[in-house]
Amino acid sequence: MIEYSLDSALPILPELFCVLAGMVLLIIGAMRGNAATSVICWATVATFGVAIILLLGLDWDRVTVLNDFFVFDPFAGFMKMIVMLGLMASIAMSVNYLYQEQMVRFEYPILILFAGVGMMFMISANNMLSVYMGLELQSLSLYVLAAMQTRQLKSAESGIKYFILGALASGMLLFGISLIYGSTGTIDFHSIGQALELSEGMNAGLITGMVFVLVAIAFKISAVPFHMWTPDVYEGAPTSVTALFALVPKVAAIALLIRLLFEPFAMLVDQWQQIIWVLSLASMVVGAFAGLVQNNVKRLLAYSSIGNVGYALIGLVAASEGGVAAVILYLVIYMVMTVGAFSILLVLRRDNVGLVKLSDFAGLSSTNPVLAYSMAIIMFSMSGIPPFAGFFGKMFIFETAVAEGFYVLAVLGVLSSVVGAYYYLRIIKIMFFDSSEETIDNEFPLATRVLLVASIVIIVGFVFKPMLLLHGTLNITATFFT
């Protein structure tokens, strides 16, 4: 019989609080209707803020609860905090946009709240069933959000595409889990690891199951060749939802991938390194070259995210403590840059219509120099030009690859980064050298302004303490290497 106590519930206190808050907000929304959307949005931001405080108040020593279905350790604590900060930023950017686009629905922030709970369970998963539960809770909420703009055909199309391919990924995940269970008789992470040690890692059924699990997660992080949904969904979904997709789900999915690779599948490092190597290279190359021909900013940022996933995967190929630390650091920097980019994209409007084409940026340096220079800093950082934060993120990633002997992957990564820099610099060229007589709307909400300033400060200020966060992430990754 499984025994539960109050102490066993403490590690899941942030998740429990978010679920209870979500239920209360859902009741409020049902009673007051869409008129309560703004209040519920900010209440959801406050909910994540309180959950972070509860998270920081926990003992971060490793502990498993719920019959070992749920694990809490320094890695889980840090990644959950990053995810919740990203969710807070995405909601704060969205409030004004919802009213501008006439898609005021009280369900919007509540869906994000429950998606966040799913992400937190993914990060703390210690069993294949908890992996599936967290992944599906996140995905089902995101499917609805992608199709939230019901008056737009493209939004409905993006929701259907995301749902169909997401369901395919879920099927692959379940099939992989069934193969793992059939080979080991367990779906517990620790027991799977023990079974691999006893079989010395040469278990064909388990290896096949691992491949299917990794393919399913590759879908979720948009790694090539499982990226086909990303550009269409990014383009068709409301821009605020695209910002959410770019900010948070990939961080949670890569956190889950890290836990899977370095806990249950640690003995299969020689096998999964080959898979991650191919995914990394393909994502970098496709993200760099496909982005060159894009004229829609959202599609361009989709290919940018695919390329950035490729760079992050280099750190996992290295399979070292420094490599995982570099991945976490890269994800944090990428999230900060994405917050800045979308905070600008969400306020770029002309005659109350959102601007999403590259040509819409023409003459921005004249009409709104603050936004133009802010966007230039973000684009320089994304392209990896020093002394901005993006440069250090890529440098640490390539450094770990070289340290572990993956010279070819590191060189190809650098070359892909050079190619990808073209479309980032192209935006700067359009803003500063192309002319346009049309002006943009001057509305710039306070929350979006604060997020943009914070993003720029971190991107520019990172050069003064580049090793500070890296040392912190090294302490976190010690979870998997002790």
Structural features, described:
With 482 residues, the protein is mainly alpha-helical. The protein has one domain (6-480). The protein has helices at residues 6-9, 13-32, 37-56, 74-100, 107-123, 128-146, 153-184, 189-198, 204-221, 229-236, 239-247, 249-262, 269-290, 297-318, 321-345, 364-367, 369-382, 389-403, 407-433, 446-461, 466-477, and strands at residues 63-65, 70-72, 349-350, 353-354. It has a two-stranded antiparallel sheet with strand order 1-2. Strands 3-4 form a two-stranded antiparallel ribbon. Helix 4 (74-100) packs parallel to helix 15 (321-345), helix 7 (153-184) runs antiparallel to helix 10 (229-236) and helix 15 (321-345) runs antiparallel to helix 17. It is globular, with a radius of gyration of 22 Å. The two termini are 32 Å apart. The mean pLDDT is 87.
Topology diagram in text:
Layout: H1 6-9, H2 13-32, H3 37-56, E1 63-65, E2 70-72, H4 74-100, H5 107-123, H6 128-146, H7 153-184, H8 189-198, H9 204-221, H10 229-236, H11 239-247, H12 249-262, H13 269-290, H14 297-318, H15 321-345, E3 349-350, E4 353-354, H16 364-367, H17 369-382, H18 389-403, H19 407-433, H20 446-461, H21 466-477
Antiparallel strand pairs: 1-2, 3-4
Helix pairs in contact: 2-3, 2-5, 3-4, 3-5, 4-5, 4-11, 4-12, 4-15, 5-6, 5-12, 6-7, 7-9, 7-10, 9-12, 9-13, 10-11, 10-14, 11-15, 13-14, 13-19, 14-15, 14-18, 14-19, 15-17, 15-18, 15-20, 15-21, 17-19, 17-20, 18-19
